[in-house]
Amino acid sequence: MIAKTGIKFIISLTYLLFVACLISISSSCKQDDKNGVEIIQEVTPQNYYIDAVSGNDLNNGTSSGSAWQTFTKVNERTFIAGNQILLKTGCVWNQQLKPKGSGSPTSPIILGSYGIGNKPIINGQGVSGAVVYLKNQSNWIIQNLEITNYASERSYIYRWGINIENYDAGTLRNIQILNNYIHQVSGSFYWPNVQSVYAGPHCNGGIALNVTGSSGTDKFDNVLIEGNTVSHSGRTGIVVWDNVWNGTDYASTNVKIRKNTVEFIDSDGILTFGCNGALIEYNTANTCGNYAEKGMFNGSAAIWPTRGSNCIVQYNEAYNTRALLDNIDGEGFDVDIDATDCIVQYNYSHDNAGGFLVIVNAKGSPGVYLGTTGTIVRYNISQNDGTRVINIAGGIGKNTAIYNNTFYVGSGNSTNIIEHSWDIDMTQPLSFMNNIICNFGDGKFDIPGTLSGNTTFNYNLYFGNHPESEPKEINKLTGDPLFVNPGSGTSGINSLDGYKLKSGSPAIASGILMGNASKRDFWGNQISATSIPNRGAYGGVGLNP
After folding, report:
1. Is pLDDT of 341 > 70?
2. What number does CATH give the domain 299-545?
3. Cα–Cα distance, 90 to 280 (Å, whole number)
4. How far from each other are the two terminal CA atoms of the chain, in whole angstroms?
5. CA–CA distance from 244 to each of 68, 73, 241 (Å)?
6. For residue 177, what are the CA distances in angstroms to 140, 141, 222, 237, 276?
7. Which residues have a Cβ under 8 Å from the Cβ of 453 and sit 6 or more positions away?
């Protein structure tokens, strides 16, 4: 009897231990990564709290009262769908944050903050690499953080505030980077050494999504970068970059970069390389091209797509872009090599040292696939941009159309209205129609494609000074366009009502219908598909201010 009771007790105890083990496994399990570091992976999603002041790494981290103190616990854990990693507001960490794991499309992993007060600060102290770093991970939201990574030297060390890397991982999806403040990130302008997986310095800076590796078949899908401020950082402020560009088959898709501010950026402000259908809108770029070092290339433009198709750049403001060290760039906007069927519309460009826009074709150059074709530039306003308003570089791309823009050059400026350089192929047609050019400076026109006879200037209005090089088109107007208050734009894309037209303006209903016309003007007025349009960026009725 005693023996049977003892056997029953042992069996019951064994069962209880087995159940306890199952419960333990349901909460977490342990494995070793390739470096022998213990990785903890959770099964049931939890919220995790980190408090640099009152936390303790001996806590379980699952409540604000039992928060961890450092990122050590975070970096050794592989998180799952539904987890939130929350940093205490007002706290500062001098560490890199490299959590592992992926969420799901309906339940992303969130890296953010809790509490009331200033954003939590993560200070990389000039560390090589990224302060916040994800590699081959999908379904993440990174929000409401302050990040800095300053170093006194640059050399070949690439630095980021946030870097999401896709290294031979196929398609990574659903990345959101929202409402962060990233500043003093000391990026590098130097080309990497041979061991680096990064193709060039454009890919390092404030916020980056980088496709690295060598397969050429990797990409991102469904990316949202919104509401961030990136200041005093570089080389690039915000960038989505593809290390191996092999045409459009494996370009990143559904990339949206909107409502961000990039300011005092070392070189380029916002850049997409290898994206199809990227949407870059409602951003402000102030003082890009802000860093110079002798002997180092710093060709800069504030906002631009390259190596991709059907990208739209709209409702952005770019100003004070600098052209340093006698470099020919410094434009507010750029449509660059192998960009096909991209649209630049409803933007405000002012006071950029290199001008409003450069369109780079370069067809026939090494590594260029098709060149830049199908570019549409419409309903933009340029005020007091420098050097030239528009630069055609590397030849004319097929089906380039520039129409219904307003270009204003104030007195005392030497801005050319249009230039061309690096003339590889000048045989393709360029259409320049329905624009208003107020030229009170002493700049000229250097018209591309005149030798080939394929450049079409017509239905434009020219007012102010008339240099000998001004196009002699058939339906040219030279009278006062009767703007409400020209030259009155200030900072802010909503400061441009002075470029609306008064009643009696010769620009009203005197243009020509365009086959690929927009449905609205700069201010949102509806544009008829059948009625004769205005010239310039204003498509509404005449005003009596």
Report:
1. yes
2. 2.160.20.10
3. 32
4. 107
5. 40, 35, 9
6. 8, 6, 12, 13, 19
7. none
DSSP string, 322-371: ---TT-S--EEEEE-TTEES-EEES-EEES-TTEEEEEE--TTSTT-SS-
Report the largest interatomic distance among the alpha carbons of the chain, rounded to a whole angstrom: 118
What's the gap between Cα 502 and its chain centre? 36
Q: What's phi and psi for 77, nearest 5 deg?
A: -110, 140
Q: Kindly list the domain boundaries of the chain, sorted by start residue.
A: 29-116, 299-545
HSE at residue 307, side-chain half, CA atoms within 13 A, is: 19
Instruction: Give the global pTM.
Output: 0.93
Gap between the Cα atoms of 120 and 89, Å rounded: 5
Establish whether the linkage from the previous residue to 235 is cis, with ω within 30° of 0: yes
Q: For residue 98, what is the enclosing H or E element?
A: none
CA distance 406 to 538: 8
Is residue 156 within 8 A of residue 193, CB to CB? The reply is yes
**What are phi and psi for residue 79, nearest 5 degrees?**
-85, 165
- Is 50 exceeded by the pLDDT of residue 17? no
Residues in the chain: 545
H/E/C letters for each residue in 369-406? CCCCECCEEECCEEECCCCEEEEEECCCCCCEEEECCE
What would the pLDDT profile of 234-260 be if each residue is shown by its tens digit? 999 999 999 888 777 789 999 999 999
CA atoms within 13 A on the CB side of 42: 26
Give the residue carrying structure tokens 């952005």.
316
User: Distance between CA atoms of 225 and 271, rounded to whole angstroms?
Assistant: 12
Of 72, 144, 154, 151, nearest in space to 115 by CA: 144
Q: What is the mean pLDDT of the chain?
A: 91
Q: For the segment 438-466, what is each residue's pLDDT rounded down to a tens digit?
A: 999 999 999 888 766 778 999 999 999 99
Residue 429: which of 460, 400, 470 has the closest Cα? 400
Token pair listed for 320: 């004070």
pLDDT at 31 over 90: no
- State the pLDDT confidence band at 18, using cuts at 50, 70 and 90: very low
pLDDT at 293 (0 to 100):
76
